[in-house]
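Forwarding the complex inputs:
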Amino acid sequence: MAEEKGLTPRAQDFSAWYNEVVLRAELADYSPVRGCMVIRPWGYAIWELMQGALDRMIKETGHQNAYFPLFIPLSFIEREREHVEGFAPELAIVTHAGGKELEEALVVRPTSETIIYAMFAKWVQSYRDLPLLYNQWGNVVRWELRTRLFLRTTEFLWQEGHTAHATEEEAEEETRRMLGVYRTFMEQWLAMPPLTGLKSDSEKFAGAKRTYACEALMQDNRALQAGTSHHLGQNFSRQFDLKFQTQEGREDYAWNTSWGATTRLVGALVMTHGDDAGIVVPPLLAPTQVIIVPIWKTDEQRAAVLGKAQEIAKALGTAARVKVDDRDFLTAGSKFYEWEAKGVPLRLEIGPKDLAKQQVMLVRRIVPDGAARKEALSETLAVQQIPERLSGIQRAMLAEATRRREANSHRGVRTFDQLREIVDGVGGFIYTGWCGSSVCETKVKEETKATIRVIPDAEFRSAEMPATCVVCGEPAATEVVWAKAY
RNA sequence: CGGGGCGUGGCGCAGUCCGGUAGCGCGCCUGCUUUGGGAGCAGGAGGUCCCCGGUUCGAAUCCGGGCGCCCCGACCA
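Prediction (whole assembly, two chains):
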């Protein structure tokens, strides 16, 4: 009985586990339209908590929210050459509306650079109008062939920041700043420590001059791109005539940046912290942080136990997001499994035996090795301790994820054979030298399926810069990090 | 778009070879007993068997055509 209700263990089949756990935790479900998904309340509540935190950070760095339309004239997309080449295969195009064929087809936005910079061009005349620091929350559509819930769907939700600056330096600074915001957000809220750095030319955003990214390592040792920040140079401003008069009276094109993070982060959360019992949600992102499960036999006990459960929930007040599971058509045991699958960090069990002793059973969703999962605490102590317990769990989750990332980072890899052996074996982040040639890059990709995730930022670089390219043996231009990616 | 598979109550499937009362598990509903790790018993509801056509006394089953979905190979957050 128990076996058939369990999830496929991660070690047996990670992607089967992922699909099952997303459905079991009621994060999302498949929609009637191929490649699209429905985000269910539990998944959406997690997303809303992410949104709230990231939105505050975006505003704290001086940005304002706005909203640009879903439909973009096809000609806009076509204006920037690299951009259109990057997106052409995955565009959804509206050719008919209002019962007739449209004069100009409309693209359902795959991203909003074109329409936003077209509008910026109307609003900017002078250097005094710069910088423009905009962000928008919305949905985008990219027609995908192979889809997976949260990780790759035809429609997804995200925020996209778009800025315009008077100088290249300022734009570069902005690009780096927002990469840092993502990194901090992922560490503090998702308890997921990304590796940050610069994308190689072949992996950068279509139309960007440079792309920086946060790459997180999932439990199957594959990398997941979790947030990107692009320095767009003057590529779009030239095409959309986004120019301004400088202080010296010259005319110049503005420098743009764009940066985005998506509902893919929910998938990242699942694959970073989940275990064979379900997902594990970091306390800061848990829609319910404490689930109280009352246990009773008789009606008399039911009243007393429920009364106590409500009392404790009330005592916690705003110190934690708490909920009493008072459904009387389920046994306590089945509720335990359900909330564990959904990743609620703490559970309080209250039954007649506890009432008699004025105590509650506090059960942690995850525990350090060897620690007891359940402990009896007095009612008052439990209420007092819960906020600190939650922040302790948040810290422990980041520490564990960081430990795992480091344990699966392979440095000092010198030869192609070594690289191949790790990619085909344990996987993880592989640090090597690289000459900078796309020929070498392509060779690794074709022969191992691993790609350059990033040219790592300074703090991630190895103590000793690798001397030679892992492929051709020529002097290395830089250190890079390889991994199989989602 | 090339190769493989599948369409049968909400979900997962059996039945198709060899035509003859549409079945099983889970879920759902009602009642009683239950509730400290996925409850038990009893009763019950729920089906254009993907669609169209053909063969036949009779088609989920055989034949023809169509549609849809899933899995595997080139791009992407």
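The CA atoms of residues 315 and 390 of chain A lie 16 Å apart.
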